[in-house]
Every structure is written in C-alpha cells, then in structure tokens.
Amino acid sequence: MELWNGLVKAIELIVSLDPEVMQIAGRSLRLAVTSALLASVICLPLGSIIHFNRFRGKRLVISLIQTFYSVPTVVVGLFVFVFLSRAGPLGGLEILYTPTAIIIGQMLLIVPILLGLTISALSGVDRTILDTARSLGASGVQMAVLVVKEARFAVMAAVVMGFGRAISEIGISLMVGGNIRGFTRVITTAISLESSKGDIELSLALGIILIFIALVVNIVMNRIQQR
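The structure corresponding to this sequence follows.
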C-alpha cells in the first residue's frame, strides 16, 4: 500500500511539473547531452584515424579501448577526483564539485564506448563501396568521407548509447559533483539521497523519469539500427 501511494504521489509530481523534479531532470539531461556531444567531437575523428591507418599495435589499441567499455563509474570518478582535487595536477582550475567536473568525468566514461563503436561502424562498411570509389579515382579524404557517410546511422547509435551510459551513471556525479542541491544534483544521485532520507515519492518520480528516458533512448537506438 505504501509503495502504491508513493507511486501515485510520484506521478502527481511529474504531471504537476514539480519545480525540483524538473530542475533535477533538466540538469541531468543537459550534462549527459553535453558529455555525449563533446565525446563525439573527439571520437569521430580519432576513430577515423585509427580505422583508416595501419600501424603496429593497432589490434592491441582496439582491444584496450574495448576493455574500458565496462569500467566502473566509481573508478572513473576517483581518477577525475584525484586530478581535480586541490592536491592534484589540475587543482588550480577549481572545478571540483561543479557541473564541469561531472561533464569531464562522463566524457572519460563514454569515450571508450563511442571510440570503439565508431571504429566498428566504419569497419562494417561494405568493401565494394570502397573499391568502387577507388576505381573512380577518389582521394583518401574523399573515401574517408564516403565511409563515414555510409556508417552515419551506426555512429549515431553509438552516440545515443553513450548518452544513455552518461545519464544513468552515479559514481562520477557523486564523487566529483558532490550532489549539491540546485547545482550538481542529478537524477541518480537524487534518487540515492532521497531514498536514504525516506522520501519515496520523490525517489519514485525521478526513477520513473529515468526509466522513461531509458525507454526513449532504446526506441531511438532501435529506429537508428533499423535504418
């Protein structure tokens, strides 16, 4: 009965656009989207460089990238915390416990995913397309652009997956964001805090929003993969 009442109250908070719920959800979306976009800017050209060039140890590099797919978020959070703390090499920036620190941490978390999936997407392009372009006298740059264009839907799916990973993590946001109300509190850290305080209604409301976002992400990924 208590769970049902909490669920009803949670839906009321969402429908009424409760300011605190909307603020937390909006902040989570902004940080995750920013992290995914910035990571994409890094991973698309870097993934292309790795894919289109032959060098010693290439397979080892790709294997290392794939190894970091499942790195625990608390490990990334600890790494970022050490670097951004006052005693760390980047402590002078004074960005620990700020949204910027969370974005940096989430970027480090999803860069291996985006990088590895970008390389896989480019590798999946039909060789016939490359052979045809080469026979027509296409330059190396033109061929690279062609491959990226052909793999665009797979690359988009990778970006969406990175976004989903970023918005659902908790370790980084908690360790380098500090879960500061109205500043760095996001959905996952708010759920953890409010549950420990016994505020089941707010926790459920945020949980429903997170599940809804995950559902939208999966729908978008399925649509992209079907293309």
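The domain at 2-226 is CATH 1.10.3720.10 (MetI-like fold).
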